[in-house]
Design a protein that fits this description.
This protein has 155 residues and is α/β, with parallel strands linked by helices. The chain has helices spanning 11-17, 38-45, 64-69, 100-107, 124-138; strands at residues 25-27, 52-56, 74-77, 80-83, 87-91, 117-118, 142-143. It has 2 domains: 11-94, Rossmann fold; 100-143. The protein is 28% helix and 16% strand. A 3-stranded parallel beta sheet has the order 1-2-5. Strands 3-4 form a two-stranded antiparallel ribbon. It is elongated, with a radius of gyration of 20 Å.
Length: 155
């Protein structure tokens, strides 16, 4: 039986992908193509129209992943403009992250309410919507700190 997928678990196995001379489908872990091994794979395969790049999960606005999904024809990687000839496929439902309802359900399992919940991840509008749900559904204090805000946390 032929192998249809090859999982690259080590940096060395990942580096081997950069030497491929035949069409490939590169699937990266959920992320936004902002750093890591995927940048090397993109650099080596985006220009090949025989290849496909699957963007799994949510791609935050302004990131390479979001720009690829939006159809940009050139992406800057390692200081070089790379032409996008590969097929770009978006699978937004493939995220390993919890959605707002799953987070609320998880928070409900707390033995007691925290003094305050700080939402520090995600797009601002989505984070603020989660803040409102935490306040409305759980009656807990919650906020979305801005970049550079300081919070004193007492034990």
């Amino acid at each position: 039986m032929a192998h249809v997928a090859r999982f690259c678990r080590t940096p060395d196995q990942s580096r081997e992908l950069n030497q491929l001379s035949y069409p490939a489908i590169i699937i990266s872990a959920s992320g936004m193509a902002t750093g890591g091994r995927i940048l090397h794979h993109l650099m080596n395969h985006l220009g090949d129209r025989r290849c496909s790049v699957v963007c799994a999960g949510f791609q935050a606005g302004g990131t390479r992943g979001a720009r690829l999904v939006a159809g940009e024809h050139s992406i800057r990687i390692f200081g070089q403009d790379v032409t996008v000839n590969a097929e770009i496929v978006s699978l937004p439902g493939m995220s390993a992250r919890a959605d707002a309802s799953q987070i609320i359900d998880w928070l409900k399992t707390a033995h007691r309410a925290p003094q305050h919940v700080y939402i520090t991840h995600g797009e601002h509008d989505a984070a603020d919507a989660l803040r409102r749900r935490i306040q409305q559904e759980l009656g807990w204090r919650a906020s979305v700190p801005m970049m550079g805000d300081r919070v004193d946390v007492l034990s």
